[in-house]
């Protein structure tokens, strides 16, 4: 199973709203994809730092899901020119090489005028360094608060921009093919001995 990682623990997060939309897109393509929420994981992270030796239940469940994941889709907002500290702190608790090596990773950024370009590129550095397979099609949601604005005609504030919806649809379709191809070639984390 693939997983969508919500890249922040902020209450009322736009990243969560985008992550739910991405989950719907995968469902429409016939695939169930599970959300991993930093809000849940942070309870475990706040309890104590357990780098590489995770015993806290919330943290353990989440890191084990990542170690078995078919592919990670990370929805990451920009905080102060980078990814949220909570996300990096969570990533720093993953086991290497198990969580990272040969794992396909797909990235969606959101933020102000650069649409989360900086945190996405910082994630590419982190995952590239750790030998993950970074899927090259990235999606950036600029001025995300406008894209998700609630109105009389759009009371839930769903993303409606046809160009962005098309890009997200294409990204999901092609990421599925990318993951399947890595498995066929026995290059995927699940098929390769690290
Ligand atoms: C702590 C914080 C720092 C932010 N820093 C930036 C920034 O450096 N650049 C930017 O474009 N947007 C910045 N933003 C705007 C966020 O990217 C935008 O509000 C986005 O919706 C945040 O994601 P979230 O709703 O999932 O928390 C910041 C928002 C927060 C809460």
Architecture overview:
By secondary structure, this protein is α/β, with parallel strands linked by helices. It has a single domain, classed as Rossmann fold. Helix 2 crosses helix 3 and helix 2 packs across helix 4. The chain is globular, with a radius of gyration of 16 Å. The structure holds flavin mononucleotide. Flavin mononucleotide binds next to helix 1. The site of flavin mononucleotide has 15 residues, from helix 1.
**Total discrete domains:** 1
Q: Which sheet architecture does the biggest sheet show?
A: 6 strands, parallel
The strand count comes to: 6
N- to C-terminal separation? 20 Å
Note poorly predicted spans: none
Radius of gyration, taken over Cα atoms and rounded to an integer in Å: 16 Å
Could you state the order of secondary-structure elements as H and E? EHEHHEHEHEEHH
The share of residues in extended strands comes to 5-15%
Structural class by SSE content: alpha/beta
Our count of helices gives: 7
Instruction: Catalogue the ligands.
Output: flavin mononucleotide
Mean pLDDT: 94
- The CATH topology comes to Rossmann fold
CATH superfamily caption = Flavodoxin domain
Query: At CATH's second level, what is the architecture?
Result: 3-Layer(aba) Sandwich
CATH class: Alpha Beta
Query: Helical content, roughly?
Result: 40-55%
Q: What sort of overall outline do the alpha carbons produce when their principal axes are compared?
A: globular
